[in-house]
TrEMBL record:
Domain DDH: 17-157
Source species: Candidatus Malacoplasma girerdii
Positions of the DHHA1 domain: 244-317
Protein name: DHH family phosphoesterase
InterPro entries named among the record's database cross-references: DDH_dom, DHH_sf, DHHA1_dom, Oligoribo/pAp-PDE_c-di-AMP_PDE
Pfam name, any one: DHHA1
MF (Gene Ontology): nucleic acid binding
Domain of life: Bacteria
Length: 327
């Protein structure tokens, strides 16, 4: 156990009340680490009051049949007397509800590149595959007996989604070692896989529609799609997401992006993906950020999407020219 892990353990142990926070538009890594953290702490310390904040104002579509949300509002009286644990968040502005500011102290565990510091204790490892991997490593150092099969399922959910079932280069030796330990607990993997990968006919039709929107620059192997505002309603898709994953396996693309309108915040947003060129620095210029090969952004207006496309194409062209010179 290293010094930082011990410091986090000591801090959690010292508080009676814990408040857990996650990022907006939560994925399986941020939800998996949040649910796992709450269950592990309750297994270890049944007397502690541990709450995940913000489910009362979160779209229930994020549950995905795997995470059972408690829609109870967590009062400020709990938060102001608690230790806040922030999971899988690189930018403070992306913390769902923003109520972490009321906590007495903050602990942050994350695997995104460090952009800023906003907690008293921060365990950041951008080489880790996921926040669930870091949380699992902490748990197994602390008390493996408190990792039950339900906790294991939550952690595995974040592990396989953030690695695309161990496809991404972020998968490392520690990732597979943790996965082996979690699978050994024999949680319901079939339920998890059904939740993740089964899709309705309307979802499949919507994805086909997204593919039809793709515009490409064949020379740069770059593509993008602008999803019209009314598309989600037309296909009866409740959850607004970037849909960037639809282009993941198109061999003609090395970098790709999508733009969509998020009517929950009345802003245009999107995602960028890359096979090898780092693109997070481009996203950071457009109120976003993330991993080197996977990042998100938020536009100030729809017209700004042209500036982002121009920035991306210029960047890809420069990077490719630099690589040719090196070789």
């Amino acid at each position: 156990m290293d010094f930082l892990q011990k410091s986090i353990i000591d801090k959690i142990t010292s508080y009676k009340k814990i408040s857990i926070f996650y990022h907006e538009i939560p994925d399986f890594d941020t939800l998996g680490s949040s649910f796992a953290m709450r269950r592990f702490i309750k297994n270890k310390f049944p007397e502690k009051e541990v709450e995940i904040v913000g489910f009362d104002v979160l779209d229930p579509a994020f549950e995905k049949d795997f995470f059972q949300f408690d829609n109870t509002h967590i009062p400020n009286e709990h938060i102001t007397d608690s230790l806040g644990i922030i999971l899988d968040v690189a930018n403070e502005t992306r913390i769902w509800t923003g109520r972490h500011k009321y906590c007495k102290e903050l602990v942050r565990i994350d695997h995104h590149p460090r952009l800023e510091s906003f907690a008293n204790l921060e365990m950041i490892d951008e080489n880790a595959s996921s926040t669930c991997e870091l949380v699992a490593l902490l748990f197994y150092e602390w008390d493996p007996n408190c990792v039950d099969l339900i906790t294991a399922g939550y952690l595995y959910a974040g592990l396989i989604t953030d690695t695309a079932r161990f496809l991404y280069p972020s998968t490392r030796k520690e990732t597979l070692e943790i996965a082996s330990k979690l699978v050994g607990l024999k949680f319901d993997r079939d339920k998890l896989y059904r939740s993740l990968y089964l899709k309705s006919l309307k979802q499949s039709k919507f994805e086909s529609f997204i593919v039809s929107l793709l515009k490409t620059n064949k020379k740069l192997k770059f593509g993008y799609a602008v999803i019209p505002k009314n598309s989600y309603k037309k296909y009866d898709i409740g959850l607004r997401m970037s849909m960037v994953h639809v282009f993941n396996n198109i061999k003609e693309l090395e970098v790709w992006a999508t733009f969509y309108y998020d009517d929950t915040v009345n802003k245009w947003r999107g995602s960028i993906r890359s096979r090898s060129l780092p693109i997070n620095t481009v996203a950071e210029k457009f109120h976003g950020g993330g991993h080197k090969l996977a990042a998100g952004f938020t536009l100030t207006s729809f017209r700004q999407h042209k500036a982002l496309i121009k920035e991306l194409t210029s960047y890809i062209k420069t990077m490719k020219e630099d690589l040719r010179e090196v070789n």
